[in-house]
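Subject: Protein record for review, amino acid sequence with backbone structure tokens
Why sent: The fold of this protein is of interest and is recorded here as tokens.
Notation: Tokens come from a learned vocabulary of local backbone shapes, not from coordinates.
Attached in line: The record itself begins immediately under this heading.
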Amino acid sequence: MSEDFTFSESMDGGSPITINEQTKAVMIKSATSGYGKASIANFDYCWNNPPQPCTDGMTLPTIDVQYAYDTDTLALDPDGSSAIIYKDRTSPVEINYRYGLFDATSGQNVEKVKQFGFSVTLDSNGSHGYYGAWQGRHQFWAGESGAPANGTSVTKEVWDDSVAPTYTTKTFNGSLNKRILTTADLSQVLNIPVEIWMSDGFSLRWDNTNSWWEKCLWDPTANSGFGGNSCGTTAYDLSAMAWSDNDRKQISLNRWDQTANGGSGGNVDYWYDDINSQLKQLDNSSWPPSKLQTVYTPSVDGEEIWAWISGSTYIEYTGDFTGPSSGWVEKDLTSFDEQTWTPTFVSTNLGEFAFPVGMEYYINNKGVNFVVERTAANNAANDYDVSMELQQVARPDNADSFMTGVSYLASAWEDASTRSTYELESDSASANYLLLVYKTIGSNDNDKSVGDVVTQGTWGLQAYDISNAEVLDGSSNPIQFNWEYADPNQQNSWGAVTYLLSGSSYVYLDDPIMLDPLSLTPMGGGSALNFSLQYDGWMHGLPDMHWELQKSGFILNDDIENKIVNIPAGTEVADSSNSNTYYIKPLEVGVILPILGSTPVGAPDPADANSLSLAFTVPTPTDIGTMPTGLTTKYVEGVAVQ
């Protein structure tokens, strides 16, 4: 067999170049055994050899491989050396790479009725881009350059004989988002690591009598109203201060030491050694800071350390409130894969996560935000108020109704007599269409004018009606809005939205389908795990096994096998937010053979393929004629198409 192919690819997000590749193979086989030789194009060549050596019109170099097999063993000689790899054909491992989602009632493939996004090429240079949406935010990606200029012509990539439609781009430099809170439950994140953003400042006071640290918070009512620290009466668990170079959170521990800097005084920084349960000195003269082994021992009763925790960390709701368990644990992050945005944790946790009473956390689970507030200290599941935050974005199709009942937006914490107020510009003829503009000018915005665009992103804007009363939702919660702005002069795309237009009509996309948590057992065994999945033509939320295999050179080891999680065909799943149910079916399945640790007795020999030659002429393909017309698909796999 032989395959010749010419494709265009952009190496750096700029203009694409044309690259040729050729794959050839010869196989000799019987019913139970065989051998062969293949010459395979090295698709990684251009990216793994910086500076990129690929030039326009070149042919990719090839990787040659010989192999032989019988009913039990596959023997591979990947480069003509004596280092033969033996694989076990009796224990194949299946990996589901891609899934389809089908309506549980009608059997309809959801991609037949929903449009999640699609690939395009820029008509100016042929480089590739993608048009997608999340929570109503339509965006266009085109390599490292991001969204192209307004009016850029692009063509949808199609894989059949249909005429590819052409669109033009339209970018708005900001997006106004309405926050919609719906009742949720902690069971929706049970046993699923979720990300939180932390911003917690307090002090730790040493209690010499009990030989422990106590957490202290500022209390404005202390000292007869003059304010002061209010400290706990139990030991503070210093394991919460554990920090490693892999963390996505930052921890600052420091105190003023009058003896530092030769007696002139200064701040001294510390770190918590969770292995030895000790506070030790930290050297911040380099990054990452150097963890010294000098142990810090408090010298007097009441000695204080200032503590600050910021950034993100991962916590997991266990639902276990027995004994000392808090219902939450903090995960020990060992690595974070930026390509797949996937965290990896060690098997043990950092310890119990003390969810503060009165603290509200945004809990992010793969783009879905839960707002969780601990309202009581009974150490029970009902201590928490839980809401799921959905966001509705101001778009051309809802601009007229988006602010129904809302007269203006304003910051609730500013003085009503001096603050500015804002409104959405819904006039499509305005240059500021769909942007947040000033409705009235407050004392701090004297350099602004009514109708100017608000160029500072603001979260938590309160909605007010014409009588200056707060606008409430159906649960009597104040309706809030977030304004995200992308300054076009700073090449900042965060907050911008980009649409594709077909003529004068906007092309709207569907948001991913958010599925209820699904319990699955990894192929390597062990306890079942909960997975939170989203579907937009691709099942998000499962380990990316193709990427994991690529990192290991496509060698299936125990570590890789333990990560494999397959959803069985016919699994029923639900989207409770829309009361819909679906069935899942694998659409693309790979079979990977495990490596044998030693050479099997009587193993096949790849040298059997030495006599085969790949120096043959590629035959001209036979024309099988034109595609039949006027046909209707009536059955797929024996099931009538509706």
User: Anything to note?
Assistant: The chain has a mean pLDDT of 84.
